[in-house]
Amino acid sequence: MWDGDQDEGDATIVQGSIGTALDLAVAAWLDAKGGRSGSAKTLRAYHDTLQRFRQWLHTHHADLDSPPQALGLLAQRWAGLDQPAPATYNQRLAILSSFYRYAIRHGLLTTTNPIDQVERRTVDSYGGAVPLDRDRLRVLLQAIDRTTLAGQRDYALLVVALQTGRRLGELAGMRLGDLQVRGSTITVTWQRTKGGKTMRDRLVSTTTTAVTAWLQAMQAAVPGPFSGRSPVWCSLAINNRTLGHPLTTRAISDICRLRLGTGKVHTLRHTFARAMEETGAKVSEIQARLGHTSLAVTGRYLQALRGDDNQHAAAVLRLLGVEEVAGEE
Description:
Layout: H1 8-15, H2 21-37, H3 40-59, H4 68-79, H5 86-105, H6 134-142, H7 149-164, H8 168-172, E1 179-182, E2 185-190, E3 199-202, H9 205-221, H10 249-260, H11 266-278, H12 283-290, H13 295-305, H14 313-319
Antiparallel strand pairs: 1-2, 2-3
């Protein structure tokens, strides 16, 4: 039984109301998914998606065990409700398909997977992947006032993100117990990254210095006690009584927006990957640091990041006789 960072709400999701064979299949599937990902957010997404689909089926006098041909058509229609983005449409279908694969494999349903007959929509996976401008990033980081507690925290957080390329949820999940100090270096263990992987990053001296300064300041300013489960990045708000509580993903997005002008924390991951490539890292090294499943995925990702960079543009214009015209005095 999954017992990760599970709270009472998560337990309710898994247990549910097991009154029929279908209810049992849903509960077993959610339990298996929770154990695999360990992410309460992922479990909630799986639960809510299947629940909404099932409720919609009921309005059409159907259920999860209706004839597969009809279910496939219904799933196609439901996944397209409210004109979702192609990625959202495909994700809805992927969650439904996951349920049917599990239920069929374990003999909980005797049917074929109805989602197999539904065509997926074309997705430009990395169409919005744009790294930050390096010169502007440098100026913005230097502008952070590190004489303040918030400045120390925000600077250390952003530098860790830029060195490691970790995702928003992984940054928010950092705990003191994930940090191993050896001499003047800190190694971060990411207990559960996307896909359930455990990864590690040894922080370079610049990052270690920033993190150490923040942790010392935090432990002096925030009431303890501290333990291995204490957050690395905590709230400094006193008025709403969240002082010392872990920063939420939204709070980290707000910090990114305040300090760097964008609330898209994933932009830091894009910036990390592009910088790795420009410093001469092999695609296999970048793949390993990002935790991608294949070189092909990383290759497409890097290609998207440099999508606006045509190194041959000037040579093409020269070849075609287009010359730069000097301005008149």
